[in-house]
Specification:
374 residues, alpha/beta, 2 domains, five-stranded parallel beta sheet, two-stranded antiparallel ribbon, 14 helices, 7 strands, globular
Length: 374
């Protein structure tokens, strides 16, 4: 069979680290290459996690370089591309940082070899992961009930492939099981029966059966998984959620990235001092534009030198946030206002969650809505 590479990108965040440990423990025979792409603007906690993970895996984590070291005099990889973009800061509308510092270097690193890329999107996340435009790269999502990427699902469940999928299910299921699955297998996708509904129905019939069918289907295509003699993940029915990720990291001794540690802040609410909790919510550059304002306050108070560095990028009208500069955010009265808003919003969400839980309990008991008793 054709040699297929197995790769896993380490971002320095919790999910990719947990995925590396999870696959190592469950599938030690998988020869996985671990890689990371350093922007040069990560938090110290990110680099510390990567070092701990190297030790736990007993394997090196290859650093992919977006540019040759002798090609630029810029302070970091990020600064090199910022200069090329004329000082135009990345944003949700123009994520050139992801493209130039992550995606393009990854695809150059892979080349033309058939490659399976393992991605740590959790089972409790409602989003699709990046699908490479290179036909030799296939993404797999081991933490989800559906491990296959959207492009694979679209192909397998297309109306044009119904007969082929029916035939493959006939090889996997017993007669009674096949009869039970028949209404879904023979129903065309349309306005009244979406691809999502068909996928969910087939997963309910059996995750392993569905995976076996997809695996056999892929053998008739050029997808990298189809080039394998066997693929152990098709037997896995695990769904890994947020709490599971933290448990994997804790049990391994690697631990979660330091920036997830919840720290207390004080804020005055109605004349009384209250204590809120803040932390960073994601990996990425210390000046990531996806940060919430409370996370910018966290950076200001926990890494003041990095906050000052982030401020230096705001020139010529370019800012990390559309409505506010970091200079304005750092004013004492603004910091207090952000903490107050965060504290109140957090407690409103907690109250809603508690009320929802109370309503569920009362409904289960046949009592009615909790609001009836207010």
């Amino acid at each position: 069979m054709t040699k297929v590479r197995h790769v896993l990108g380490i971002s320095g965040g919790k999910d990719s680290a947990a995925l590396a440990l999870y696959l190592r423990d469950l599938y030690p025979k998988l020869d996985i290459e671990y890689y990371t792409s350093d922007t040069g603007r990560e938090l110290d906690e990110t680099y510390a996690l990567i070092e701990r993970l190297k030790s736990a895996l007993g394997r090196d984590i290859i650093e992919i370089k977006p540019i040759e070291e002798n090609y630029t005099n810029a302070e970091s990889n990020f600064d090199h591309f910022l200069e090329l973009y004329g000082g135009y800061l990345p944003s949700s509308m123009a994520r050139w940082c992801t493209k130039k510092l992550k995606l393009e270097p990854f695809e150059d690193y892979i080349g033309e070899e058939p490659t399976i890329s393992y991605v740590g999107i959790r089972g409790d996340e409602d989003r699709e992961g990046y699908i490479s435009k290179k036909p030799n790269v296939q993404s797999i999502f081991p933490f989800r009930e559906n491990i296959w990427s959207e492009d694979v699902i679209k192909k397998v469940l297309s109306n044009q492939c119904m007969e082929q999928v029916w035939s493959l299910y006939g090889e996997v299921l017993g007669e009674n099981e096949l009869e039970a699955a028949s209404p879904y297998l023979t129903k065309k996708i349309g306005l009244n029966f979406t691809q999502k509904q068909k996928l969910e129905a087939l997963l309910r019939i059996g995750v392993k059966a569905f995976n076996q069918v997809v695996f056999q289907f892929l053998k008739t295509t050029d997808y990298p998984v189809g080039k394998l003699d066997s693929f152990p993940l098709i037997e896995n029915e695990d769904i890994i959620r947020l709490d599971d990720v933290f448990q994997i990291l804790e049990n391994s001794g690697v631990g979660a990235p330091g920036y997830y540690k919840k720290l207390e802040y004080e804020v005055e609410i109605n004349g009384e001092i209250q204590k809120g909790i803040y932390a960073r919510s994601r990996s990425g550059c210390f000046f990531c534009f996806y940060q919430q304002k409370i996370e910018w306050v966290w950076l200001l108070e926990q890494h003041p030198q990095l906050f000052e560095k982030a401020k230096t990028y705001e020139v010529d009208g370019y800012t990390w946030m559309q409505d506010e500069t970091l200079e304005e955010l750092a004013h004492d009265e603004r910091v207090i206002a952000i903490k107050k808003e965060h504290y109140l919003r957090t407690h409103r969400e907690q109250s809603k969650s508690a009320k929802s839980w109370q309503d569920d309990i009362l409904a289960a008991e046949g009592v009615g809505c909790a609001s009836c008793f207010i």
